[in-house]
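Ticket #4471: structure output looks truncated?

Reporter: J.K.
Steps to reproduce: submitted the chain below (203 residues) through the standard prediction queue, then opened the result file.
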Amino acid sequence: DTLIQASKLIENQVDGVDLNLGCPENIAKKGNYGSFLLSNPTLVVNIVERMVSELNIPITCKIRLMENGHHIPVERRGLSGTIHFCQELERVGCSMICVHARNRNNKGPKTSDSDWNALKRINESVTIPVVANGNISSFRDVIECHTKTGCAGVMSAEALLCDPTLFSTGETNHVTASSVALNYLNYAEQYPPSDFLKVDVFP
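Returned output as attached by the reporter:
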């Protein structure tokens, strides 16, 4: 109910609403959201189904690999497998799924490579677009991930904080750190955050 009420406040101002089921941090555990909500996949599917039926914009989901069943198709195990879960999300009207191909325990010092084989199998199991996430730290990774998984798109998160030009090919976009910084400042002036340093920096 809360998600639908919140979404209705903005549905005429946005192109869609994304349900983020990827956060593995303890604060998400305390609030029962993010990747911890994946422990109750039936609830997630019901939430998405209601959002799809009551909102006039696309609903998308970002998930991690399920701990029970992983990406292996399973039978008579409810929604425990990631593939079955994604198929159920598609069935109730989810428009797109982004998959961070690690489970919620695969983080911090325990972080290991993202499972691109899992991404490939998940992508082949549904007809809606699947976006790959995990192990994307260079443009070469973008190409390799897209080639190996066949996913509709590739997403990067933390690596972009180090290199905002990550998605530039280097062949068509010759950018420098200074030009990126200047572009950022220009955007900050054009779209100033109201509470930036708690003062009106750009009157």
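Triage note (M.O.): checked the attachment and the full token line is present. Confidence is low (pLDDT under 50) at residues 70-80.
Status: closed, working as intended.
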